[in-house]
Q: What sequence folds into this?
């Protein structure tokens, strides 16, 4: 085993002592063992500190004030020593061969700097089947990632240098922070896909962020605008982003109108109109 670990596993957590132990065991039971385990306790007020103390010597704990999942992941990445970063949400689980199979795939195809895997879904203890729209794939998948988040953070293995260069997770996003990061990465880099169900996503519990935020497309629209303003997109990518921005803005305008939020509705109508104009201009330029 090398003096530095090959992989740094980062688990951000907040008040999930009732689930965290299972997540920790799923990491420590990996068939691949050359990793360090970093848990970022994001200001928990439950029994998380006591639980983590019982695992002393097998993991590193970083205790912070409440800052959010993006800041926690970024902090863990800053402290990491491994060449590869692997993130695991504290309500998810890994299958024992997850890291080993993923690393083998990267060793066979070293040109890839990021990979993800397929997953099992469990809702309130019952296994469910994802819809077709959640299907995974690899390669140049920027356009495929525009409608919804296609990559689960808990399945990702990413080169630490790439994560640092790309800027990590944007801490201004309370939700859809993963969607926003994947857009920045997939706009420039191909993604390796391991077609094996190697993680278990546990959902349906009340402390999920998806239960506390409505209208996820508000954050996706913000992310699309950000990537459009970045100037890094190809003409094809830019057109695809605009074609996703227009209908998302339309739906949000309708939603705010139903809630009698006139200012917000007007803002999204203007954004929809702008996107439509840009699509027309781009198509006219392409055909000229």
A:
């Amino acid at each position: 085993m090398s003096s530095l670990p090959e992989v740094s596993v980062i688990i951000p957590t907040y008040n999930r002592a009732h689930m965290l132990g299972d997540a920790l065991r799923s990491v420590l039971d990996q068939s691949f063992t050359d990793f360090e385990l970093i848990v970022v306790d994001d200001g928990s007020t439950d029994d998380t500190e006591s639980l983590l103390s019982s695992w002393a010597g097998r993991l590193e704990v970083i205790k912070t004030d409440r800052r959010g999942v993006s800041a926690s992941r970024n902090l863990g990445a800053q402290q990491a020593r491994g060449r590869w970063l692997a993130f695991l949400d504290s309500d998810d689980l890994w299958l024992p061969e997850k890291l080993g199979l993923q690393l083998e795939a990267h060793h066979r195809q070293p040109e890839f700097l990021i990979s993800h895997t397929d997953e099992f879904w469990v809702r309130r203890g019952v296994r469910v089947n994802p819809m077709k729209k959640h299907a995974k794939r690899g390669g140049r998948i920027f356009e495929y990632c525009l409608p919804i988040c296609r990559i689960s953070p808990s399945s990702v293995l990413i080169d630490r240098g790439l994560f640092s260069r790309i800027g990590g997770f944007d801490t201004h996003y309370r939700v859809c922070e993963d969607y926003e990061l994947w857009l920045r990465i997939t706009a420039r880099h191909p993604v390796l896909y391991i077609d094996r169900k190697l993680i278990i996503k546990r959902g349906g519990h009340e402390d999920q962020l998806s239960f506390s935020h409505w209208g996820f497309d508000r954050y996706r629209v913000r992310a699309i605008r950000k990537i459009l303003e970045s100037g890094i997109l190809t003409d094809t990518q830019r057109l695809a982003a605009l074609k996703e921005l227009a209908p998302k803005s339309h739906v949000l305008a309708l939603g705010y109108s139903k809630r009698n939020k006139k200012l917000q509705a007007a803002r999204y109508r203007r954004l929809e109109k702008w996107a439509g104009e840009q699509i027309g201009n781009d198509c006219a330029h392409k055909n000229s």
Remarks:
- Residues 234-287 form one domain.
- The longest helix spans residues 262-287.
- The chain has a mean pLDDT of 93.
- Strands lie at 7-13, 35-42, 60-64, 84-87, 92-94, 114-123, 126-128, 157-159, 192-203.
